[in-house]
Task: structure prediction
Amino acid sequence: MDAPEEPLPPVIYTMENKPIVTCAGDQNLFTSIYPTLSQQLPREPMEWRRSYGRAPKMIHLESNFVQFKEELLPKEGNKALLTFPFLHIYWTECCDTEVYKATVKDDLTKWQNVLKAYSSVDWLIVVVENDAKKKNKTNILPRASIVDKIRNDFCNKQSDRCVVLSDPLKDSSRTQESWNAFLTKLRTLLLMSFTKNLGKFEDDMRTLREKRTEPGWSFCEYFMVQEELAFVFEMLQQFEDALVQYDELDALFSQYVVNFGAGDGANWLTFFCQPVKSWNGLILRKPIDMEKRELIQRQEATLLDLRSYLFSRQCTLLLFLQRPWEVAQRALELLHSCVQELKLLEVSVPPGALDCWVFLSCLEVLQRIEGCCDRAQIDSNIAHTVGLWSYATEKLKSLGYLCGLVSEKGPNSEDLNRTVDLLAGLGAERPETANTAQSPYKKLKEALSSVEAFEKHYLDLSHATIEMFTSIGRIRSAKLVGKDLAEFYMRKKSPQKAEMYLQGALKNYLAEGWALPITHTRKQLAECQKRLGQIENYLQTSSLLASDQHLTTDEREYFCREILSFASQQTDSPGHRVALPMHSFAQLRDLRFTPANAVVHVGGVLSVEITVCSQMPVPIHVEQIAIHVHFSIEKNSYRKTAEWLTKHKTANGVVNFPAEASPFPTSQSSLPALELYEMFERSPSDNSLNTTGIICKNVHMLLRRQESSTSLEASSGLALEDGAHVLRCAGVTLQPGPNTIVFRTQAREPGTYTLRQLCASLGPVWFVLPHIYPLVQYDVYSQEPQLLVEPLADSLLAGIPQKVKFTVTTGHYTVKNGDSLQLSNVDAMLILCPEENRAVIYSNTREKVSDALLRVQSSDKVTSISLPAAPTYHLIEFELEVLSLPSAPAAGGESTLLGVTEPHGKHKDTQKTGHCMATTDHKVSIDCPWSIYSTVIALTFSVPFRTTHSLLSSGTRKYVQVCVQNLSELDFQLSDSRLVDTHDSTDLRLIPLNTESEQCIHSRQAVFFVWELKWTQEPPPSLHCRFSTGFSPASEEQLSVSLKPYTYEFQVENFFTLYNVRAEISPPPGTEHCRTGSLCSLDVSITRLSDLLEVDKDEALMESDEYFSTKLMYEVVDNSSNWAVCGKSSGVISMPVTAQATHRVHMEVMPLFAGYLPLPDVRLFKYLPHHSAQSSQLDADSWIENDSLSVDKHVDDQLDSGSVKSRGSVHSAASSEHKGLPMPRLRALPPGQAFNSSAGTQVLVIPSKDDHVLEVSVT
Amino acid sequence: MAVCVAVIAKENYPLYIRSIPTENELKFHYMVHTSLDVVDEKISAMGKALVDQRELYLGLLYPTEDYKVYGYVTNSKVKFVMVVDSSNTALRDNEIRSMFRKLHNSYTDVMCNPFYNPGDRIQSRR
Result:
């Protein structure tokens, strides 16, 4: 704090200000007490309760004790508060009544009267008691008496206005107690006085403020009044309250200015509108700028004066409050608002004056803050002060431009005059800074004095500002200041210094994609690079600018011409060239291959059509456009085949290139999204998970070094690939916008060609697209000739002519006239050669080229097909008909294959149940002209039919049925169906019962044929038959070849009927019909129809007494549960082997239902002795199990005595059981040998009378 | 009435920037770009507190002699910057806030447009 050197009475405007307390009475006494008093008073805080709901505060009170004089009392209307005596104290030591009456009372009365005259009620009478003094006196009165007297005389009802202070100078507890009481009293009274007087003052002030709309109201007067209040608060160390007073004044003034702007002008405000004549900046080094205050008091202050004074006071208070950063912030606001207010009030300001004022003020504030903070504090609060620094820099810059200090030539006379005027407005330096070397005043004066000094100061400030901005991370702000600096350097003709700042700024704008700043900065950079002679960089920047949409056409054309003029210059070194990135010059949009799949055979022509979008504003003639191609020998030969060619068709051969989003920042466009994939690694042994993770597939894209902008985009990164493979196109004029350029090339070496770079040359200037991405490739292949044989239909059918397609892929082989395919003939397969067979030649792209007649010559062994002449990489296609001769598939069961037409090739019978066709493979070997090896081709034919046969009987008459099933999708015409006995026995005849000789068999349907067997002599035990039928596809009218019939061979055995079984059910005697629930009789008669035949000779045949017999077992089974068989349902009989031998069996059955019921089944089995081999067919397992029959044992004996009796050859046998012995076996009679003559007969059963329930089952 | 309004993507490139008068566009571009320094500072300094209070308005970013620059940040870190003429005293904090709210609503409408690709530049009909 700068203490005032010369305190001016009566008001001392310093921190030393204290509320005034007057002292009357015994001055000597007071003088003796004063040291203790002034020391004790502020020791303890006191709570100050405030009016208007303001928060109470603890306050340490101090006072300035002065001798009471009448002049100190304020006169009516005096608003001064600082000089206001808040309390009047009368001191007396009197302890003697006489003395009191004589002098003290009068003195007190006089004092009281004066106070009353000024209506001051804040007073206190202190009676000091002194024991030492008392002892000296003789007429000592009781201590209280004087106090009482005084109270009585003066303290009317206010007895507390008189206090006693005992032995103040002693050190005793009583003294202490007395002091405390006194001090508390004193403080309370002081605060009471404050509250009362300040409250009154505030009320008055408010009244004054309310009058502000009245005409004569003056802001300056009001200012002085409110400031008085602020002073008092400051005096009481209530800085916060003091600040509030100034802030209120500030706001009031601001509001008036705003209102003035809105047209509501106050008279007093016009005074502040006087032209600015002095701009010496803020003065913050004194707590109170008396000079300015007086101006305000005299109502002579300008707006700047008022603002300066107001801010200096706010600054002082804020610094008391330890808020220096708020000073900085408020300062910036103040400076801005002052500039605005001057504009608003239309105050005339000489050019540059405000710049000076702002510059000085900024530095003043900064120095003031630096003056009260340490370095560390300042460094950590740069964010608050940097605004002032940059503002000062800006202002100094504009001053420099104004005064001609930036131009190369230095200031002219006009500039000098202006400078002089500006310096004049600064006035003389203030005494308080006169000794400071770096005062704002000196700095400004020096900076304006010469070009060099200005440069020094401006650079200092700029660098300091940039450094500060950078240190707190305000990079963008730093770059902007840097750009100003670059502008300055450019003006000073030092482009080399400017470049760094421009590059830095440009990089920043590019990174964040701010198009306009980019364009602007680039323009500056272009200028800079031009001056520096950085030709490549300049050309590159120019190309970027020429393609910049944000520039006007004129500007773009200018930069375009710059490039063109350089390109047209004759260069000294012919090899020298300037490589520039392509994207600013032209952009590759798409690329189209012809052929579209970008695969071409050796010698073929490939064309590449590219669309390039020229970014230049004018048409540009380019000497040459070239695509550099990288060649690699493809390891994977598959890619080179025609097969690959046909299978891998790209959409249409067009590759689109993503448009470069030029103005977007790197973060958006060039950084691709993460491509993450899960990764699992399993152990090979047990497939358990070993590791898992995430793989980023495009790390190489993400982790590459960020390409630095502009300058580094230049040639260094553009390595031109000089490969042998270059596609060229010369003399192209690129119009603005899209252009199409076609490159043609003839394929030479097989391999993969990758398009790497695109390069457009313009004299020494080369525009290079270093990488063509996405990857574009074309392939050149060389292919071996190939032959492909495939059926036209899904499968080939045997027996009828079928078409087969031959495809010859010529590859690198040229088919000459006379070249032929040699097919080795196969017996079972014919190659049919229709006339007018044509071969078609296609080009590689499946376009038909020509067709030619195909000549086919057949000899016994070889069929020769002469190929038409065809160039390389073509296809020859033709069709041939082949015919697989049908073969007879074997019939299952009792047939064997005999004399079946066996094909030459391997005959594979894959007949299965279901609808699979039997297939036959034929292998053909073909000799091709291009190869010494034969090509073997397998053709698979399917037999379209499946045939089954069955034997049918009617008594002894026999029929053979053949069923032909068509398994194919085609309809066939069957003709000339025939069944012959292959043994050709004369006594056997097959009489066809089929009426039609031609029959149509549709797809997936069957046709049945029946023949009756007739014989004259004893029929043979087996019959070998062959079924054959001619067939031809129903759809085709006429076939060129006669087709072989379809044959089927089979064998029928034991077809002769030996036994006739007849069953009959008769109702119970006396009734007409069978009834449900009543027993009926079942008579079964088994009749031998023939004498001993060859077929009977088996194990069951027994010879005894010159006649033969065989054992049969019968069984009555009713599977449909219509009948209940009562008693024994089966039995073994011995059948004599003679014709007409009959065996009858009687049984009883009971019908369970009413209606026409079919008879129960009667089955016959051959009963074989046990000793035969294990090949028996046991049909009635359960029966054997149950009865455990041995040969000898008869069933009858074991079963319970039923009513059924078997007659005839029933002989009883030993009932010994042979457990563990082999069981007798049963064999079903072959279906042809037993004929059931009663099959299909039915018996009428009527319901019983008493049966009320009728069951009807509907099935 | 603001003299310049800008919508700035999370990555600090402008999605939309428009100034009236148009002849001094460049100046406003520089100004708005520079103001991002303070926006970043404010977001990082009181980021936590802002998120908790759901306070999107950043207040005055910085004043200049002629303009006041205000900021606003959405929850998705898209920034709105508005430049207001300093002499326009009619615009108090509340007016600025409501202007930002309107701007935010419009921006939300744009984002709701299924034909708009987030991150693309915003086209204005006017």
Q: What stands out?
A: The longest helix of chain A spans residues 173-210. Chain A is about 30% helix and 30% strand.
